[in-house]
């Protein structure tokens, strides 16, 4: 009769082989590299904001507070970009840099029943901008505005300004009652 250790040796070897092969298989799968896009510095030329990640962050925040998600809207994206560019051109943080929000919404072609806006300057990453807005009572209230379902966001690099990056976030709800 063979000792128990001798009987288990082949099973252990097989298990070790399978485990090693499994780990090797894991290592060959694609592993994300680099930092998440919400930590990407926007304070450089040719860097693009990951708007889908921004929508996901804001939707997650809204969900954690019992609210529905928001999705990106092309008209609101253009409106946010125009506002961020107007502030960058002037080197000044100003809700009315291009025009008051109500006029900009009306001129955008987006038929809104609700529209709110957060702006920012000096935040170099999406994570910083989001945290700044979350920690400000008025900006937090805008991100948690009941009824909004659409958003647009932009970050514009202004190398000659003291802020370097200007942000605009527009959250809105379409007026479904109008044709």
Explain what you see:
- The chain has about 180 residues and is of the alpha+beta class.
- About 45% of the residues lie in helices and about 20% in strands.
- It has helices at about 5-30, 50-65, 75-90, 100-110, 125-135, 135-145, and strands at about 70, 110-120, 150-160, 165-175.
- A 4-stranded mixed beta sheet has the order 1-3-4-2, sandwiched between helices.
- Strand 3 (about 150-160) and strand 4 (about 165-175) form a beta hairpin.
Provide keyphrases for this structure.
179 residues; single chain; alpha+beta; disordered N terminus; 45% helix; globular
What is the number of helices? 6
Strand percentage: 15-25%
Order of neighbouring strands in the sheet with most strands: 1-3-4-2
Order of helices and strands: HHEHHEHHEE
As a whole number of angstroms, the C-alpha radius of gyration is: 25 Å
Note poorly predicted spans. 1-31
Instruction: Estimate the global geometry from the Cα principal axes.
Output: globular
Mean pLDDT: 83
- Count the E strands: 4
Q: Helicity range of the residues?
A: 40-55%
The SS-based structural class is alpha+beta
Determine the N-to-C terminus distance: 88 Å
Main pleated sheet? 4 strands, mixed
Report a brief summary of the structure.
This protein has helices at 4-28, 51-64, 74-90, 101-108, 126-134, 137-143, and strands at 71-72, 112-121, 150-158, 164-174. The protein has 179 residues and is of the alpha+beta class. It has a four-stranded mixed sheet with strand order 1-3-4-2, sandwiched between helices.
């Amino acid at each position: 009769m063979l000792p128990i250790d001798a009987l288990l040796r082949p099973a252990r070897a097989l298990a070790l082989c399978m485990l090693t092969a499994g780990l090797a298989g894991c290592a060959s799968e694609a592993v994300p590299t680099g930092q998440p896009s919400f930590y990407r510095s926007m304070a450089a030329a040719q860097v693009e904001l990951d708007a889908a990640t921004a929508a996901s962050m804001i939707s997650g925040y809204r969900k954690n507070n019992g609210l529905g998600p928001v999705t990106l809207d092309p008209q609101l994206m253009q409106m946010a970009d125009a506002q961020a560019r107007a502030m960058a051109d002037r080197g000044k943080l100003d809700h009315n840099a291009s025009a008051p929000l109500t006029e900009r919404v009306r001129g955008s072609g987006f038929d809104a029943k609700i529209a709110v806006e957060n702006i920012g300057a000096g935040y170099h990453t999406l994570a910083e901008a989001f945290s700044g807005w979350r920690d400000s009572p008025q900006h937090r209230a805008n991100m948690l505005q009941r009824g909004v379902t659409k958003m647009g966001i932009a970050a514009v690099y202004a190398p000659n300004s003291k802020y370097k990056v200007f942000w605009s976030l527009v959250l809105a709800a379409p007026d479904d009652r109008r044709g």
